[in-house]
Amino acid sequence: MNTIPSATFYGSSLKGYTPPALRENARKLYGDASNAKCFCFPTQSAALEAAAKLPALQLFSEDLDTSGTRHYLLATYEDFWHIYKKRAKKHFYEVIRENVSCKLYFDLEYIRTCNTHVQEEELIATISKLVASGLKQILKRKESSLLPYLKCLVLDSSSNEKFSKHLIFPKIVFPTNRIAGKFVWKLLQMSDSCSNLLVLKPAQNEMQTVLAIDLSVYSRNRCFRILGSSKYGENRPLTIGQTFDQKLFYETLVCYLHSDDVLCIDDVQIGYIQSLDDNSLSSTLKGYSIQKVFHDAINIPHSKGSPYPLIDKFIESVICDGQVKGSIRSVLFLSSSQKLVYNIQKYRYCHRIGRHHKSNHILMIVELNTMLYYQKCLDPECRAIDYRSPPRLLPEQLWSEFQSITK
């Protein structure tokens, strides 16, 4: 089977950037991890510009002092892991870039002394129940069929003074961080149980009622602390209750998407979630404006395309027949496994049954490392046997054009 050479896929070096991709700098920064290759940048803007040219690489940041100064690292997941595991003091973050696919996640925090009434287990259970209820409304399925996708990883960096946890749902993914935030916002409007998510926060001479969920994490190009790391100057690393290996570390990363056996939730589907007419959350918060906090997250423009528009165009050409013309509703880029997962609307033809599904949608999968594509289904019967159509090669012309845009 043909495979694209790694040098062709990742492209040439970022000539002209300062500093460039550097074994020398890596040696200076990471000692005996210098064999791991990475690009290092002093500013986020330079790192984001480079990341846009190399979509197969991932962006991370590291605290350099307590003032918030950071530098940025662009590397494969494999190389970053080798760098990270040998770092004695870890102060690293995953950069959740705008318009990059991500998992469902929550950032929870509050001051314990102000909230002795809060039941921590009930707080997490409420969020899990909200997620399950939201998925039931979107997918019209029984909760029992959703259980494999409700797996929740809990990362903890709490102290005696502060409750601080990250919740990661590795089987629920979104085309962008903005859409993940919109899903969370809709969940909060869905149920009166959201009152369980309210906590007290000291502000000047009074206590404010706020959410235990930090909604600002769903803003653009957010730095999100990763497993094993603490903030600079603190000794509260995120832990998961066990020694973690490479596989578990990857699973906790918000943007690490490897398997296509996930629930992909897009902007249109989120609209199926019904809000309460009289939302108790709004009345309880009174003057606290969630809408203001969340403004940036819900107004970032969203693209339905992948980093590879030529492939997008080809997929659009195959999802049509004499009667039905489909379109791409959303696309996930699974960078770790080098796959594009297209969520298709209107066109529902399934090769297993030899006709269009009546209501269930289909997916088109492109494997970038082999240049093969095939069809999968959201139909429960097709999903139960992990059906995929016989793979086909992308056209030769597209292959050559793809190589030219990744050089």
Automatic annotation (TrEMBL):
<dbReference type="InterPro" id="IPR056443">
    <property type="entry name" value="AEP_C962R"/>
</dbReference>
<dbReference type="GO" id="GO:0042276">
    <property type="term" value="P:error-prone translesion synthesis"/>
</dbReference>
<feature type="domain" description="C962R-like N-terminal AEP">
    <location>
        <begin position="76"/>
        <end position="240"/>
    </location>
</feature>
<protein>
    <recommendedName>
        <fullName>DNA-directed primase/polymerase protein</fullName>
        <ecNumber>2.7.7.102</ecNumber>
    </recommendedName>
</protein>
<dbReference type="Pfam" id="PF23162">
    <property type="entry name" value="AEP_C962R"/>
</dbReference>
<dbReference type="GO" id="GO:0005634">
    <property type="term" value="C:nucleus"/>
</dbReference>
<dbReference type="GO" id="GO:0031297">
    <property type="term" value="P:replication fork processing"/>
</dbReference>
<dbReference type="InterPro" id="IPR044917">
    <property type="entry name" value="PRIMPOL"/>
</dbReference>
<dbReference type="GO" id="GO:0009411">
    <property type="term" value="P:response to UV"/>
</dbReference>
<dbReference type="Pfam" id="PF03121">
    <property type="entry name" value="Herpes_UL52"/>
</dbReference>
<dbReference type="GO" id="GO:0003682">
    <property type="term" value="F:chromatin binding"/>
</dbReference>
<dbReference type="GO" id="GO:0005759">
    <property type="term" value="C:mitochondrial matrix"/>
</dbReference>
<dbReference type="GO" id="GO:0006264">
    <property type="term" value="P:mitochondrial DNA replication"/>
</dbReference>
<dbReference type="GO" id="GO:0003887">
    <property type="term" value="F:DNA-directed DNA polymerase activity"/>
</dbReference>
